[in-house]
Design goal:
The chain is built from 17 helices and no strands. The protein is mainly α. It has one domain: Growth Hormone, Chain: A. The longest helix is centred in the C-terminal third of the chain and has 33 residues.
Amino acid sequence: MTDIKLGLKENWQQFTLLVLVNMLVGGMVGLERTVVPLVGTEEFKIGSDIVVFSFIIAFGVVKAFTNLVSGVLADKYTRKRILVTGWLVGLPVPFLLAWGPSWNWIILANVLLGVSQGLAWSMTVNMKIDLVGPKKRGFAMGLNEAAGYGAVGLTALLTGYLASRYGLRPAPFYIGIFYTVAGLILSVLVIRDTRQHARLESAQVTQQQLAGEKFHRPDLLWVFRETSLKNRNLFAVSQAGLINNLNDGMSWGVFPLLFIAAGVGLEGVGWIKAVYPFVWGLGQVITGPLADRIGRKPLIVWGMFVQALGHVVIGFSLFPPLTSGLAGSVLLGIGTAMVYPALLAAVSDAAHPSWRASSLGVYRFWRDIGYAVGALMAGIVASFFGLIWAVHIAGIITFLSGVVVLINMKENTPRL
């Protein structure tokens, strides 16, 4: 490992390529943000909110369980192989979304998308963390998530525009074909595996840095318990990640239907759906390095509170519908930008390099279960009380999640 070095400067070329790959990964999720809920209600005439949101539930559950095993698979088969596998699984997705003859085909597309995202996005996260080492994890995660969610926002806007001009299907999904082919080619031809970088960092962690803890290579069950419950920092981070994506899962299904019913046009809905992930993505260029400078906890706590404020703006219709949607989505994006890289970096701080990939997989399991929980919650609440109450409930839960982090988490940033 003498020719392998840790650091962003030392590995900037591979890091840049991984940022590009993650833009393509994120774009695949952006394909669905504006159009697919409307495909369910307008093209397939589905009247049940829970059935319409079932594609999000399928996506969230499958992606969560894929995240759980992705780290173990990466340690066994290398990060690059798992990244390539993720793209191979995702190849049929845009075709199913564009031409699937029934809602079951849309759900199948989201099962495949969940597997693809769980493998591909997890590997871009792990590979960037491997490359940069411990000192700039927040910065690395900021760039990674900025690229991914910036692409989500831009693709959501583009699909809304295409749908308003050419119809809900198939035109908005053509760009997904480009994303999958380009992502697969880049992953096969130019991305190099980074497992040796993780091994180098693991070798550099001394017994003093482990605070006297006897090192062992734990199994997945041990890592699951440690990340989910036993370690208070990891517990706080995991529940915050779940609630954060609960917001995303709720908004994914609810916002298109809510604002169309309020009289906002399809392009307007596209802007509302684009602003949230775009601000979320772009903001992480700032909040990622900030997490290295001031620590993870302040950004996580206040990020959850800002998201709760976004729900207030939307839920209580403080402005006309389009303005409320845009303003609330900006606040949701700012809050999520504060939270996202700090959460990933906090997991990396607390987990030993030798089981960090598995711990990140467990965290991402809980985080992406939030998609399913948010969509299921929204479907049930909307069925009984209306769509707007799904927004209210999400806001209350988000505020309480921030309080949990405030009480349980202790700062553990290496630079501090």
